[in-house]
Design a protein that fits this description.
It is a single chain. By secondary structure, the protein is an all-alpha fold. Helices cover 77% and strands 0% of the residues. Helix 1 (3-29) packs antiparallel against helix 4.
């Protein structure tokens, strides 16, 4: 991977992260006037899933290029679990959609759109892992882990912003 590609990838991640942070700042600045918050029935499950993801990322850090296939399986399992969580959040966010104010709908759409963009960035990193050489493995693996951490944090923030649930407790 060339230095320019790495720099461009890093700039893209920073811009995406800044966009998401500003989306969450705007979302937090608006006050939710509806009673659309749902009980935190899945808070424990989300905490357990987050712990599993963290463990998977810790083990991924230790994989060498010779263990790439194993690392890719772990990464794909983690991506699949994140996709499931995103799907569940999207489903919950759309419940009672017609009863929500236009402002709340717009905030939810912005939050979910930002999560999807981060998910796409994670997929790009995964594809780079699949195609990496031994010379680029450590950098590409780090890029995947960084993208994972950004998306994981955004999922927690979205869970809190959309549903009033704190999943950061472990």
């Amino acid at each position: 991977m060339s230095r320019i590609t790495t720099t461009t990838s890093r700039i893209r991640q920073i811009l995406l992260f800044a966009t998401i942070l500003s989306t969450f700042a705007l979302t937090s600045a608006c006050t939710d006037q509806s009673d659309d918050k749902q009980p935190a029935a899945d808070a424990t499950d989300a905490g357990e899933v987050k712990k599993e993801w963290s463990e998977a990322m810790e083990s991924l850090k230790a994989y060498s290029i010779t263990q790439r296939d194993e690392a890719l399986v772990k990464a794909e399992e983690t991506i699949d679990a994140m996709d499931k969580r995103i799907d569940e959040m999207e489903s919950r966010a759309s419940q009672g959609w017609q009863d929500l104010s236009a402002d709340i709908r717009q905030r939810r759409e912005a939050t979910l759109s930002a999560m999807q963009e981060q998910r796409e960035a994670l997929a790009e990193q995964y594809e780079q892992m699949k195609a990496s050489s031994s010379d680029t493995w450590d950098d590409v693996k780090k890029g995947f882990i960084d993208s994972y951490n950004t998306l994981s944090s955004s999922l927690d923030d979205a869970q809190s912003d959309l549903f009033g649930e704190d999943t950061k407790k472990e």
